[in-house]
Specification:
- Strand 9 and strand 10 form a beta hairpin.
- The protein is 33% helix and 19% strand.
- It folds into 2 domains: 18-171, no CATH class; 233-340, Endonuclease, Chain A.
- Strands 14-13-12-11-15 form a 5-stranded mixed beta sheet.
- It starts with 20 loop residues before the first strand and ends in an 11-residue tail after the last helix.
- The radius of gyration is 23 Å and the shape is globular.
- It has 366 residues and is α+β, with helices and mostly antiparallel strands.
């Protein structure tokens, strides 16, 4: 039977985050509008009436359908705001998971529930459900028949999904090695004792490579992909999220990467110049602060090389620029001051139960 195609209705505006990537500091989750994930039922008169109201909201473009009976409703005052695709993906994973309680949400959808960083293109797939039997796919989910051990299944936000380790293993053949490194970096940052199952038969070499190079110090998907691309081409920054001090030991800056030759590498996700500008400051203020910071680093003798998402699509050019910077710096006196790798704080995964209004005691008015 052919999968059904959901009807097309007006939809609230969806923002596509900078660099077509989501996760950590590249995500525009700070501008999520007020929203609530609701499910239509007919088990009572009030529930049926509420369901009819929700469907009217969807037809008018005031809600996004995310599964059979699942809708993401937006507050009337927030309809002009942008909706993060990551929130839509999380709502879809929860809606599909709750509609299929005997199945296990897997793959990209499980990564979203665990708040592991993914590029936006990986959020557009139907939810992958793992079962012990074959089943029908539809517009919202596809089915995989595969065995899962008890320790490979956990519960997140009221749905069963694969564990972090099994989720990453499942994605090993679906994402590039640098993107896979970003997943393992994020898992390691959250849990320094995180390990992958060495018994995995598929994509073993790829998983061994990312496990050997994973760093819990990486703070964003862009940083991790940068490291992965450079490592694959024989260039390594030994210091990740390094603290730079002057000759007196005074803090100067925290940088993404530092090389012993005297090179600082900075991945520019651009969010700091836009949606996440601190309260009381303008984008121009942030740009000027960044220039002053760079001037202090250059005054200590550091060579700085910067790149953004566009250069990650040109990995050979990125590698050339970094190598040239290392060669130039190697011919100069060593920078003054010191380089330190101080402790980093584990990040906290998003609480989709709160962000999607699942823990509210009563239906929202919208």
């Amino acid at each position: 039977m052919r999968a059904s195609t959901p009807p097309s209705y007006p939809q609230p505006r969806v923002v596509h985050s900078l660099g077509a990537a989501l996760g950590h500091d590249e995500t525009l989750h700070a501008v999520l509008p007020v929203m609530r994930l609701e499910f239509t039922t007919t088990d009572s008169y009030d529930a049926a009436a509420r369901g009819a109201h929700i469907r009217r909201q969807h037809r008018s473009g005031h809600a996004i359908k995310v599964g059979l009976g699942g809708y993401l409703l937006l507050d009337e005052s927030e309809l002009e705001n942008t909706v993060d695709p990551l929130a839509i993906a999380a709502a879809r994973a929860i809606a599909v998971g709750r509609a299929n309680p005997s199945s296990v949400v897997s793959g990209e959808a499980a990564a979203v529930l665990h708040d592991l960083p993914l590029l936006e293109k990986h959020l557009e797939h139907p939810v992958l459900l793992t079962r012990a039997w074959h089943g029908r796919a539809n517009a919202w989910h596809r089915v995989r028949r595969a065995p899962l051990r008890d320790d490979e299944v956990v519960e997140q936000f009221g749905v069963r999904c694969t564990s972090v380790a099994r989720t990453i293993t499942d994605l090993a053949g679906r994402v590039s090695p640098p993107q896979l490194l970003a997943l393992v970096d994020a898992a390691t940052r959250r849990d320094p004792g995180f390990t992958l199952d060495p018994r995995v038969p598929q994509h073993r070499h790829r998983l061994v490579w990312v496990a050997a190079h994973a760093s819990g110090r990486s703070e964003s998907i862009g940083e991790s992909i940068s490291r992965g691309l450079l490592l694959a081409r024989g260039v390594e920054f030994p210091h990740v999220q390094a603290t730079i001090t002057n000759e007196q030991g005074k803090f100067i800056a925290r940088v993404d990467f530092a090389h012993p030759a005297g090179v600082i590498g900075e991945f520019d996700g651009k969010v700091k110049y836009g949606a996440l500008v601190p309260v009381g400051k303008t984008a121009a203020d942030v740009v000027m602060e960044e220039k002053r910071r760079e001037n202090k680093l250059r005054a200590l003798g550091w060579t700085i090389v910067r790149w953004d998402w566009s250069l990650l699509h040109q990995p050979d050019e990125l590698t050339r620029q970094v190598r040239e910077a290392i060669e130039r710096a190697s011919a100069l006196p060593a920078p003054r001051g010191g380089v330190h790798q101080r402790a980093v704080s584990p990040d906290q995964p998003r609480d989709w139960e709160t962000l999607l209004g699942l823990n509210a005691s009563a239906p929202a008015a919208f």
